[in-house]
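quick q for whoever's on today - can somebody do inverse folding on this one?? i tried earlier but teh output was garbage lol. tokens:
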């Protein structure tokens, strides 16, 4: 049976990155519950649902979403949570114990942003003639070490010996499909320009690895894409399965470190979305140390 991972792909950079804070997983265990999300996260979830529905059913009129409301709920007795369209709730149609914690109503801007993403995916599907997977649950336990752990891949297209993963981002903070390991630079001896060295985005690498394991087929090539409509941006990494495996091997090693030898590595990016932020001694020490450097 699939289950939510303690080391999810969405926070892979924090717990599994090259400068990961592997202690953040256990630190966050003290701060479970109480997170009702934000307006931005609810908008993102609503947009993801719209895109998934339209990709699975091309007959849907995008304008039919205008004014519809996504309801977000928790179930206090089971500690479960979720979301669904408002019209799916009502007398005799929902658990009376549900507690609604937020909502998001679709406006024209969100429809336009979603259509940019949907159109891009449809173009890729038409160009490649591949098999489309939408909101596909993929195994990630071979990376996180958690039995039956899964992640949800927004979009995957499989064709020939290539697997393509497309992840939707509806925020306005730029996200790219790769991480720069070594910036481009000029060799001080030869004077030649050395191109930058990049590796795949940790989150997308986990999805791609999970898709490969789920499909159980041979692949040579991987394409990872971040589709970010608010910035009109398409960021892409392409490489071999061997290069992908280099990244997932590092994530696997970091996942083991999370469990057996966790290390605090506070940084602006690691602490930003960590639930323990503001209550972490290592973070406080870093802030104080940085402040004292100015004296």
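ok took a stab at it. sequence:
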């Amino acid at each position: 049976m699939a289950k939510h991972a303690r080391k999810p792909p969405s926070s892979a950079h924090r717990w599994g990155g090259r400068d990961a804070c592997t202690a953040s997983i256990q630190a966050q265990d003290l701060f479970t519950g109480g997170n009702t999300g934000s307006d931005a996260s609810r908008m993102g979830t609503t947009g993801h649902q719209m895109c998934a529905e339209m990709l699975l059913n091309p007959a849907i009129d995008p304008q039919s979403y205008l004014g519809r409301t996504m309801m977000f709920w928790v179930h206090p007795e089971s500690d479960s949570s979720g979301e669904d369209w408002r019209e799916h709730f009502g007398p005799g149609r929902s658990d009376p114990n549900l507690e609604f914690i937020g909502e998001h109503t679709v406006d024209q801007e969100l429809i336009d942003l979603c259509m940019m993403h949907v159109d891009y995916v449809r173009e890729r599907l038409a160009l490649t003639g591949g098999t489309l997977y939408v909101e596909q649950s993929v195994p990630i336990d071979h990376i996180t070490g958690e039995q039956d752990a899964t992640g949800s891949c927004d979009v995957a297209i499989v064709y020939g010996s290539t697997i393509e993963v497309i992840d939707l981002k509806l925020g306005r903070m730029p996200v790219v499909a790769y991480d720069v390991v070594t910036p481009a630079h000029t060799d001080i001896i030869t004077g030649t320009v050395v191109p930058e060295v990049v590796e795949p985005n940790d989150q997308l690498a986990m999805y791609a690895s999970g898709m490969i394991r789920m499909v159980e087929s041979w692949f040579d090539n991987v394409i990872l894409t971040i589709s970010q409509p608010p910035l009109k941006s398409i960021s892409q990494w392409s490489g071999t399965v061997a290069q992908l495996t280099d990244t997932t091997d590092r994530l696997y090693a970091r996942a083991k470190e999370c469990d057996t030898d966790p290390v605090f590595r506070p940084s602006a990016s690691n602490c930003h979305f960590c639930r323990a932020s503001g209550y972490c001694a290592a973070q406080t020490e870093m802030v104080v140390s940085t402040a004292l450097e100015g004296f």
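fwiw The first strand starts at residue 3 and ends at 4. also DSSP finds nine helices and 13 strands in the chain. so keep that in mind when u check it
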